[in-house]
Amino acid sequence: MEYQSFVNEALEKFESLPEETDELYKRYFVAMPLKEMAKKASDQKPSSRPDKSIRENSESLRRKFDAILWSGGEEVSAATNFVSIKPIESIVTEEMMTSSGDDKIAAFLNAYSKKVVRIDVPSGADAKVNLMFVNTESPLPVQIIVKVGENAKLSLFEYFASAAAEKSLMGSLHEVTIGKYANAEINLVHNEDANTYVIGWSKAKVHERGNLKMNYIYNGGTFTRARNRVDVAGLEGNGEVNELIVSAGEQKMDVASNITNSAQSSHAVLESKAVLMDKSVCVLKGYASITEKAAQSRSFVNERGILLDKTAHIDSIPSMSIGNSDVKATHSSATAPIDDESVFYLMSRGASEAEAKKMIVSGFITGMIGKIDDVIAREIVASMINEKITTKGYGFIPKITTESMWLAGSVQKSSSIFKGHYKYRGE
Amino acid sequence: MDIEIKDLHVNIEEKEIVKGVSLKVGKGEFHVIMGPNGSGKSTLAKAIMGHPKLKVTGGEILADGTDISEMPANERARMGIFLQFQNPIEIEGVGFVNFLHTAKRSIAQSDVDVNQFMGDVDSWTKKLKITNGIVGRSLNQGFSGGEKKKAEVLQLAVLKPKLAILDEPDSGLDIDAIKIVAENVNELAQKHEMGLIVITHYSRILSYMKPQFVHVMVDGKIVAEGREEMIAKLEKEGYEQFVKK
Q1: The domain containing residue A384 runs over which residues?
Q2: A interface test, pick of B85, B98, B152, B167 with most A CB neighbours within 10 Å
Q3: What residues in B contact A421, CB-CB < 8 Å?
Q4: Are residues A329 and A344 in the same domain?
Q5: What integer pLDDT is reported at residue A96 of this predicted model?
Q6: CA gap A244, A274 in Å, rounded
Q7: Following DSSP, what letter does each residue of A168-218 receive, concatenated?
Q8: Contacts of B105 in chain A (CB under 8 A)
Q9: Contact B52 A351 (CB under 8 A)
Q10: Residue B190: inside a domain, yes or no?
Q11: CB nearest A347 (choices: B53, B72, B96)
């Protein structure tokens, strides 16, 4: 298909599809200002990089970024072997697994993205890729195609930030393909500011004996709407989706994820944890599907939430569809206010009420942070979340401190975390 | 530390549980509170520690002459009061040693020498015969009943409070473990002149300990008091004689 036809189709769908009408949007009278953002995106002109914000982000995050994209421009490191940024017209539409379907957000991303970031890891290669995306007051919708070849490895870190002085949007559409025997960890860290609406659409396919771990961290943005999908389509393939949502103030989060086992002996896991403060709201939907072909597969959906204030609200909705009887599948969901007895226990050991609550929340999420294998990404996320649960602030550069490091070490035994806490010296 | 409880009344929501208890525990003294289930012993212990859900409706709790009945639990802990929980709370993701180090610093209100602290933890872990690596796990999570109780005594040993309230320290422990816990608590109390209040239904653990004062609590009140001999009497005759028909 000609790309322009693809875009025209997406534009038509974007115009004709109705606004979101499910419970979050009705109950809280929220809406994505997509028409306004579409106009801004159409009018967007090339722009020079917002230096200060990007420089401070890169320095503070202690990472060398292979590519930085901002609204109206991009910069690719000469040193990178795996990343290229091209005009959207360069996409061969057959590569795109995601068509707009009946999703207005996907249609928006298909219609208004101007750039495509390609990450191509050839067979047998071992790649570490770091990307930064910064939206200014102009929206930044972008498409990202990730292809990991047979027996290749990829560790991908994407940091989404903002330098928006007025209402804006960050939008990302991911198409991920994990080849046979390939291994990939993809960390998508959202820390946009309070002026920014966040939309995300990602779709991944895992081939035979491939392994994919997708870690989604939703910390920023005034209103996030994300749809994530992992299809474990190859024999003995493994797909793991971890979601961590931390919201404060009046942030709204609408995150729905779907894992599918569509091959024999495949393994798919979706684990979500949400911490809600103040008047923030989250709708968390986890859906697992096991197709008829996927005998001897395993699927697991677990959603958990903790509410720090009576005014916070979460709807946690796990569900499953099982098309083969020779499988192991479970789903669970639990949300509760912070436990008074736990607070008392910690206070009886000298912690103030605020310290006790912080310790409980940190303990609740530290396991999720510990799932991030990329050590620096883990430290960045730990610092960002530590700032959020301490100050409720988001959308600014996290200070990487030793105080937050114990959050980053959950997969280790506590005795070694303890030592690590004191050994920490930074990169 | 001297603790003096004067005519204490405590409610859980609207229900009165502790109905006028008076008790004096001097520095280094060893008191036992015995009584049947539901007599208010644990509520009294939590009230002394400062549980926020309990409402002190009358009386006062004096610690070295200061009324602490309105004081939050963490401040009482910093004054030197420690409660060993009957059912220690499991807290996911909070490493036991990190937690204990934070507690030690909070109570000391200063930095704690890490080597000395770790040495203390190692030494008491061995003394209490804590196996199975509980110090390397999340706080009380996945611990057996006995491990939880020993972990509480490990906290007591490292934090070295001035007054320790042990709420059923023997429940969930096998015969050998009861002896280990009792001997270590004895050693700590003697060495640090620690006041002790042990709450228990049974006299089992007391065969390894030497309480100076025994109080019997029934229906929210202290109904009888005596010395060590009273334990044998209670063991023989039960609490029936104190329960109103």
Answers
A1: 339-427
A2: B98
A3: 98
A4: no
A5: 60
A6: 6
A7: EEEEEEEEEEE-TT-EEEEEEEE---TTEEEEEEEEEEE-TT-EEEEEEEE
A8: 350
A9: no
A10: no
A11: B72
Q: Count of H helices and E strands in chain A?
A: 9, 19
B106/A367 touch (CB, cutoff 8 Å), yes or no: no
Q: Degrees (nearest 5) of the Cα angle B185, B186, B189? A: 80
d(CA A225, CA A159): 17
- Please give the span between the terminal C-alpha atoms of chain B, in angstroms, as a whole number: 39
Find the mean pLDDT for residues B191-214.
92
Q: pLDDT per residue over B17-56, tens digit each?
A: 999 999 999 999 999 999 999 999 999 999 999 999 999 9
When pLDDT is cut at 50, 70 and 90, the band that residue A405 belongs to is low
Residue found under tokens 């910093």: B78
Q: How far is CA A360 from the centre of its chain?
A: 23
Most confident of A251-260, B124-133, B203-212: A251-260
Q: Say if the Cβ atoms of A355 and B106 lie within 8 Å.
A: yes
Which residue of B48, B94, B137, B141 to mutate against A (max A Cβ within 10 Å)?
Answer: B94
Domain with B117 in it: 3-183+195-242
A409 CB neighbour count, 10 Å cutoff: 25
pLDDT at A46 over 50: yes
Cα distance between residue A228 and residue A105, in whole Å: 12
From B229's Cα to the closest Cα of chain A, the distance in A is 33
Residue B164 lies in a domain: yes
In three-state secondary structure terms, A135 is: strand
- Alpha-carbon gap, residue A103 to A127, rounded angstroms: 33
State how far the alpha carbon of A64 is from the alpha carbons of A45, A111, A135, A250, A427, in Å: 27, 31, 19, 33, 12
Domain count, chain A: 2
CB atoms within 10 A of CB A335: 17
For chain B, say whether A354 makes contact (Cβ under 8 Å): no
Amino acid at B41: K
Least confident of A101-115, A222-236, A247-261, A341-355: A101-115
Interface test with chain A among B101, B102, B130, B153, by most A beta carbons within 10 Å: B102
- Write out chain A residues lying below 8 Å of B85, CB-based: 345, 348
- A342 — contact with chain B (CB < 8 Å)? yes
Residue A91 shares a structural domain with residue A130: yes
In chain A, what residues touch B43 (CB-CB under 8 Å)?
none
Beta-bridged to residue A215, according to DSSP, are A187, A242
Per-residue pLDDT band at B165 (split at 50, 70, 90): very high
Cα–Cα distance, A235 to A209 (Å, whole number): 6
Residue B11 is classified by DSSP as E
Mutation site for A-interface testing, chosen from B42, B43, B74, B116 by largest number of A Cβ within 10 Å = B74
In a domain, B31, yes or no: yes
Sign of the four-CA dihedral A69, A73, A77, A81: positive
Is the ipTM higher than 0.90? The answer is yes
Q: Name every residue whose Cβ is closer than 8 Å to that of residue B129 and which is 6 or more positions away in sequence.
A: B150, B177, B180
Check whether B104 has a pLDDT greater than 80: yes
Question: B140 to chain A, minimum CA–CA distance in Å?
Answer: 11
| Residue of chain B whose alpha carbon sits nearest to that of A360 | B91
| Set of chain B residues whose Cβ sits within 8 Å of the Cβ of A347 | 50, 72-74, 77
Whats the size of chain A, residue-wise? 427
Question: Does position A53 have pLDDT exceeding 80, yes or no?
Answer: no
CATH of the domain at B68: 3.40.50.300
